[in-house]
Specification:
Layout lengths: L1 H44 L2 H4 L6 E5 L6 H10 L2 E4 L5 H4 L9 H12 L3 E8 L19 H18 L6 E6 L16 H6 L2 H13 L4 E6 L5 H16 L6 E4 L2 E3 L5 H12 L4 E10 L14 H20 L4 E6 L29 H6 L3
Helix pairs in contact: 6-8
The chain binds (3S,4R)-3-hydroxy-2-oxopiperidin-4-yl beta-D-xylopyranoside.
Length: 370
């Protein structure tokens, strides 16, 4: 009996020690998992804007139909600034002479106000999405410079006054500089330029300033990191500032590619524009997975493309955080990969930080990891 007991004691003791060890291991791994889950839960409860609260507001370009249901909730959680993607553009808000259409723009401004968000107005003077009527008389003939400027003044005054105190910043002038490697070719050959010459530029800023002296007035453009174009823009802004024109800031649209701009060109552009005393924002951030416009094959969101996009977003946000004293806002152009203005039939661009289900992508988690 004794022998049997003592013989059995060893395995029983061994088994109980073994079991206790397993229980301890399991408990500690549950604890770890619990802690990890808690950390993730905290991060999941936060939105993109919360991670950047000590840096700059995080905005998004929207249409009124983004502001309902699950997208509205997701927008409220992640963003604290809105830009109307289209509805404040001249052709939409001012479709005919003496005819303004405010409803859609009002909806966006009201949503922002009831949710404590800022609004960037986009855009007062542009060659795109501007009614052809603006440049024509009643028999279809091109108007004179006087008529064109009078119409521009009316447009800017009406739109800026309506949203005075509600829209804190305006893209007064959009894309007025030409993409040409020849540095002697400066201005885009737009109807505004053809009819008015350079004069409309300073006037546009003055009229916007008169309508709302507190609004922050932007020049906004793309390819602002390409040295030749960057320098043309720099020279134009320098000249405007010297003449006392009320331009306060520059918008780098930020329609970027995973291979462009380089970190150096991005840094140089921010530094160069800031050296004029202007604040800088990224106003239309997206990073297509296609490397250039000629990259036309619908490749899909492959792991390689995803990684390149993650690397680009990481790099860009690192630079923006480092330069937070110069940067007053970063706005994404569209809400999620569900729909981007870059998408074409059979060619999706996947350019944003949220996927088609509105969930944060891997790039998002890299952007908030600092
Ligand atoms: C784009 C909108 O996203 C599209 O829906 C529209 O069809 C065309 O304009 N630069 C700008 C923005 O300043 O206004 C453009 O927005 C994208 C390029």
């Amino acid at each position: 009996m004794k022998t049997i007991l003592s013989n059995n004691k060893t395995p029983i003791t061994f088994i109980s020690v073994f079991l206790v060890a397993i229980v301890i291991m399991l408990l500690s791994s549950f604890g770890r998992a619990g802690r990890e889950n808690n950390a993730n839960e905290v991060d999941t409860l936060k939105g993109l804007k919360d991670f950047y609260k000590d840096y700059f507001p995080i905005g998004v370009a929207v249409a009124p139909n983004n502001l309902v249901g699950e997208q509205a909730e997701m927008i409220k959680k992640n963003f604290n600034s809105l830009t109307p993607e289209n509805v404040m553009k001249p052709a939409l808000i001012h479709p005919a002479e003496n005819k303004y259409f405010w409803d859609d723009a009002d909806k966006i401004v009201e949503f922002a106000q009831s949710n404590g968000m800022k609004v960037r107005g986009h855009t007062l003077c542009w060659h795109g999405q501007t009614g052809a009527w603006m440049f024509k008389d009643s028999i279809g003939k091109q108007v004179t410079k006087e008529v064109a400027l009078a119409r521009l003044k009316d447009h800017i005054t009406q739109v800026v006054s309506r949203y005075k105190g509600k829209v804190y910043a305006w893209d007064v002038l959009n894309e007025a500089i030409v993409d040409d490697n020849d540095s002697s070719k400066v201005y885009r050959d737009s109807p505004w330029y053809k009819i008015c010459g350079e004069e409309f530029i300073a006037k546009a800023f003055q009229w916007a300033h008169e309508a709302d002296p507190k609004a922050v007035l932007f020049y906004n453009d793309y390819n602002t990191e390409v040295p030749v174009k960057r320098d043309k823009i720099y020279n134009m802004l320098k000249k405007l500032l010297k003449a006392g024109v009320p331009v306060n800031a520059i918008g780098l649209q930020g329609h970027w590619h995973t291979d462009d701009p380089s970190e150096q060109n991005l840094r140089d552009a921010i530094d160069k524009f800031s050296s004029l005393g202007l604040k800088v924002q990224v106003t239309e951030f997206d990073v297509t997975i296609y490397t250039s416009k000629t990259d036309t094959i619908n490749i899909g969101f492959t792991p390689e493309r995803e990684q390149k996009q993650i690397d680009f977003y990481k790099m860009a946000f690192k630079v923006l955080r480092e330069k937070k004293d110069l940067i007053t806002g970063v706005t994404f152009w569209n809400v999620s990969d569900r729909r981007s203005w870059l998408d074409r039939p059979n060619k999706k661009s996947y350019p944003l930080l949220f996927d088609e289900n509105l969930k944060p992508k891997k790039a998002y988690w890299e952007v908030v990891k600092f």
